[in-house]
Every structure is written in structure tokens, then in C-alpha cells.
What does this fold into?
Amino acid sequence: SAGAVKLAGLGVVAVIAAHDTLGMKQIVPGKAIIIVDEKADKAQKAALVEMVQKQTGMLTDNVVAVKAAPIDVEICKCDGNSCAKVAAGLAKVETRCLDVHHDRACGNETAYYPPLAKSVVAKPAIASAHSYKGKEFNETWSDSERRGAYIGTFSIR
It folds into this structure.
């Protein structure tokens, strides 16, 4: 919950288009679309947007749209605890656990960039597929097998 607004069971997704690498200082402001759970009422939607903006700082200063959509999150059961599927309307992400043999890049397999949200316990993962098909950024994307995902949990009190 956020104040008196109950958020249990609701989801929210931020889609961010940035000039610089996410997790690093941004020299040019990015743009964000926040997708709130379609099950949320007006107060819950406002609380979800506020929560995302508090957690992500400058990355969501320039929100170009707030959309409502069904948000489906499935955390897979695996040894690495870092595979998940997230579908949020026009945004989709699917991750898989890092494989020490297949995904080895340079022998220094650490999480270099910090997670985007504050106070999150996160594990790095492979974004086996991710896409955004909306019109708000004047671009769409679809990519696969990228070393740029985190799967994490946090709680707001």
C-alpha cells in the first residue's frame, strides 16, 4: 500500500527510452510511459505512478503517457531465481537465468549497472525477448538475448 491506498495484487511497468545507458547518469532527459494495471481504480493508478517515479528518479521525470492495460507477471521456478515473463499491453519482457557456460562474456560476471529501482534485491538475467510496440516514442523495438535484465523484489511500507 501507499499511504491509505491499497496496491496488493496490482502491477505497474515503466517503459523508458533514454539517450544513455540505463543505470548510468543521464545527460539528456529520457522519456517514460507508465503502464498501470487496468484493475486499479483512479486513486490506485495515481499511487502506482507516484511509486514508480519515486523508485526510478530522473528516468521517469518526463512521462509522455500513462496507459492502463492488463499486467501479467509470472516468476518462473528455477535455480537462479531470475527468470520471468511480464506482459503489460504493448510492452513485453521475458528473461532467463544466466548460464555460466553459455553466457560467459569476459570472466567477470558481475552486475555492473545498478538496478533502476531503489531498495530492490535483484539478480541479473538475460532478456531472452523484450519489445515495445506503442507509438508514444515514435519508435518501437524488439530484441532478444541481451544481458541487461534484472529480476527483483521490493516492498513499500
